[in-house]
Amino acid sequence: MPRSYQPITPASDVQTTRTHLHEVLPLTGTIVSATYGTFPDEGNIKNYTHGMFQSVYDYPFLSSSANHIFDLSVGYASGSTDAAAANTQNSKKINMYNIHAQTLLGFTGSLTGSNTQLRKFESDLKLDQSGTMNSCIFIDFSRLLVKDEIKKNTFSLTLMTGAWTDAGRSDMGLTLTDANARVDGTGINSTNGGDYAILVDTTNDITGGVVFYQAGIAVITSSVFSHSGALIPDYHSTSAGTASIRQCLQSASISGACDSLRHRIMNISFNNTTQINSTIYTCRAGYNSFNYSSNPTYLSGAKIRVKNIASDNPISYVTTVGLYNSQNELLAVAKLSEPLKKSVENELTIRVRLDY
Amino acid sequence: MGFLDASGDIILDGTLTELGRKRMANGNFQIVKFTLGDDEIDYQLYNKNHASGTAYYDLEILQTPVFEASTGINANINYGLVTYSKQNLLYMPTMKRNNKVQQAAAPHNGVFYLAVNDGTTAASLVTAFGGAQGGGHLKVLQAGQKTGTKIIIETGLATTELSGDAASVANYVTAQGLRSTGFEVSLDTRFFTRVYQPTAGSTMNNNGGNGEAVVKFNLQATSPTARDQKRRHNSLATIRAISTNVVRRQNDAKAHTETTQFNVPASCTALNFDLKIISNEMFNRYGQNVTVVGSDGNVSCRSIDTMVILIDKTSGATQELPIRIVKKI
User: Fold this and answer.
1) How far apart are CA A197 and CA A157, in angstroms?
2) Is the model's pLDDT at B21 over the cut of 80?
3) Whether residue A292 sits in one domain with residue A260
4) Using CA atoms, how far apart are residues A77 and A105, in angstroms rounded to an integer?
5) Chain A residues with beta carbon closer than 8 angstroms to that of B25
6) Residues A220 and A324 grouped into a single domain
7) Domain check: are A41 and A129 in the same one?
């Protein structure tokens, strides 16, 4: 039962700090296709009966050690040239576009008036509904990977834009990055979905989509799968034949379009961010404090073991710091890595950090 | 010329206890004080006679491995470092049960028997333990009784290096502030309702006569007022400490140590307990049926074993009192 306490004064002994931790997350294309089975039926790819998106795991998802890494989906805006009632899963593709758009961008005009319109994705930061991206691919990263947000200026997505049978031709790829975004806020805009930036291929000067940092979602325009100004004709391939991405978005199911996308993802990498709020409690043990112990071994009979005569300095050894509330309830504990000598000859300042 | 080590500050990562997490969830997490602990340290390893000199006295202690933090509220700081204003203390009080004065309870096979107040259990046990003539009454505490047998606990300096006279007490106890200011009693409130403590007029001395004890403990009830944060079912009551004024005097016919457990006594207290009405179902759930074997007979009882912990608020000295609550079948 500890009986000697020292006060912790909020004004001078308690500090709050915020730290951002980053991890590098390289996702190679081998994870997303043909590693855990035969394309397109790999064990780490999960399709759902609702058919609205496809989940990618880092290991066959029936295993308890599998981690969800991202979801893939495709969609187009209602009224776009790709939308047609005869399309496969037409309403679901519109629905997927709308879900992302209204969550990440919101609406234009009066939110209660009759002229309210869904804001569409744009290939710039203006939010003026010019340069809209009407047909998109959505990569929704798991919170497990993104943590609090994707670190700005670290996102990179390399897509293979070669022919179906030779998708990864070295001269037929593009790498979309958020090269213009900066942590200080340069090159980004903010909307309902948080901060976002444009994804560009600086080599080919192509704007390919946008990335939402806090939401952890990359929105890629379907037109990136083109070469020399024309859509690649065999973006998609089935036993029925090949199709461009436009044809694919119209005729293939969402999961089928996602399969083709997985076939063309070469690499994804970004740094995630974990924001850690810390409170540091400064515990000061003065010269005359905590020099004795109530440890049962401290006495031999009644005599203090560490002394020979009364004028010897009392000595104790610290292994633990306990933090208490006003009701003497132990709320937090910190342990030293090795015992620390405490006597009248020294004063200890121990800082205990609690992370939230 | 080397660089000075300027890493005076030590930064540790704290671990929230289960109570800390609960307080945080409730929105009343506020740390206002700290204490230091040394539970892993075995001070017997401090070798004041090390042949290599003072730098080696605590070598083994400093090599003691330290456990990781636990989230339990009772597995981190059980004893703790203590601050005394005086740095020249050489002796510190310990705690002992007094078995020398009248009415001082004695354990039977290491356990204090506490009879429920049913009118038959206590009498049967006293008889089995030898009756009043054979000291059986000292082996049975009766729940709810302010008079009669009680547990008497003393603190003092367990050393023969001091003479034990009034000057020793004055210099090594009183002047050093080692008289107890009170005791904390931790008891399981599933069974106990109240503790009986000495009244302010209680005395323990050998001031008169030829050194005979003048011991008078009148008891009064007090209730636990705070939860014991280290023991899940326990609460804490504070009971009064009485200064022990039993000292060695010249020419006394009786040695002062015939009254007190310590050569240099400091304080004492006395206690008994009151119990809740404990049903047979509770006895079955928390205890067992036992046959109490005494010198003059056996008694079949329902029993619950529990531990009462007594802590000197001044020195931190602690005494565990194993209690067997019994009810005759």
Assistant:
1) 14
2) yes
3) no
4) 13
5) none
6) no
7) yes
Interface contact flag, A1 B73, Cβ < 8 Å: no
A196 beta partners: A189, A212
Query: Is A32 in the same domain as A126?
Result: yes
- The residues, ordered by sequence, that sit 6+ positions from A291 with a Cβ below 8 Å of its Cβ are A313, A314, A315, A316, A342, A343, A344, B81, B83, B84, B87
B41-75 pLDDT tens trace: 999 999 998 999 888 999 999 999 888 888 877 66
A209 belongs to a structural domain: yes
Domain count, chain A: 2
Residue A342: list chain B partners with CB under 8 A. Answer: 36, 81
In a domain, A2, yes or no: no
Query: Do the chains contact at B77 and A333, CB–CB below 8 Å?
Result: yes
SS3 A201: strand
Where a domain ends, among A228, A246, A272?
A: A272
Cα of B230 to nearest chain A Cα, Å: 8
Between chains, do A348 and B10 touch, taking CB under 8 Å as contact?
yes
pTM comes to: 0.76
* pLDDT tens readout for residues A174-188: 999 999 999 999 999
Structural domain containing residue A343 = 286-355
Are B82 and A293 an interchain contact pair (Cβ–Cβ within 8 Å)? yes
Average pLDDT over residues B16-30: 92
Contact at CB, A326 and B19, closer than 8 angstroms: no
Q: Report the residue of chain B nearest A321, measured CA to CA.
A: B36
